[in-house]
Amino acid sequence: MNVRPRRLVLLGHPVSHSLSPAFQNAALRSAGVPIPYEALDVEPDLLRRTLRGLANEGAAGNVTIPHKEAAAAECDRLTTLAQRVGAINTYWTDESDALIGDNTDVAGFAHLAGAVLGEQPAGIRVTVLGAGGAAAAVLAALEQWPDCHVTLAGRNSERVRNLADRFPVVQDRYRDVVHSMRDAQVVVNATPVGQSDELLPAPIEALAPDAVVLDLVCRTGETAWVREARRTGHRASGGLPMLVEQGALAFERWLGIPAPRAVMWRAACEAS
Question: CA 206, 210, 214, 218: dihedral to nearest 10 degrees?
Fold first, then answer.
């Protein structure tokens, strides 16, 4: 049985850019829950101590870049889905003070893809850029798409290889991002590129003419990659729908009550 948290804390590095406090605090006020949600910037070497200290306080919360995989290793227990992904973005404690980790990013990505693509895609070619916890969550969602051809691309060949080995849905893997995108109907950016600058994770001209861009990065004003993709005629979305949905699911894990999604979405849009 989960214990109602005394605090709700987002752990990341950096984390000041996050929109999560805006919509989570709006949701908590709407639901009449007198618990604050706060963002805490945690250096990687302090993650374990911080996470354990929060658990001892009866806190719950979220985890974001770059801590999702490391936080999973610190949990006493993982949900089946978190075990599959190898990363968490949501945590809480139970009545025995055990630290539980879950991954709501998988359903968050499915929500984003559904909002842009419509019904669950089948038989399409997808390229995923990145090889971290966010990419693993995307691959866990893509496993549910029938007959899809998935290509994984990233600069770290070892991480790409290890992730591809864990997810048989990946048929091809590349270090060369441009080559990986040449026939993709959907390209997913699961890297942090563009989070705090105007850099692109891949050149727009490498996209196939009908390719759809899904950028998991969520920032005020959207990323340069999303803006440029739209300018050149591509359907494209940033990560806001995914961020709000994964946050709503986390809210429900912590509190055991329905999340006020309309309130969360309105607050996120106002903050972005």
Answer: 80
Write down the architecture of domain 106-238 according to CATH: 3-Layer(aba) Sandwich (3.40)
Measured from the Cβ of residue 33, the count of other Cβ atoms closer than 10 Å reads: 18
Q: What is the pTM of this model?
A: 0.95
Q: Where are the domains of the chain?
A: 7-103+241-271, 106-238
The strand pairing partners of 62, in sequence order, are 10, 90
Q: SS3 for 163?
A: helix
Active-site residue list: 68
**Neighbour-count burial of 220, counting CB atoms closer than 10 A to its CB (0-12 exposed, 13-18 middle, 19+ buried):** exposed
CA-to-CA dists, residue 177 to 115, 144, 165, angstroms: 26, 24, 19
User: pLDDT tens, 182-234?
Assistant: 999 999 999 999 988 899 999 999 999 999 999 999 988 899 999 999 999 99
Phi, psi dihedral angles at 129 (to 5 degrees): -100, 120
DSSP β-ladder status, 90-93 and 59-63:
antiparallel
8 A C-beta contact, residue 251 and residue 245: no
φ, ψ at 10 (rounded to 5°): -95, 125
Q: In 10 A of CB 183, how many CB atoms?
A: 12
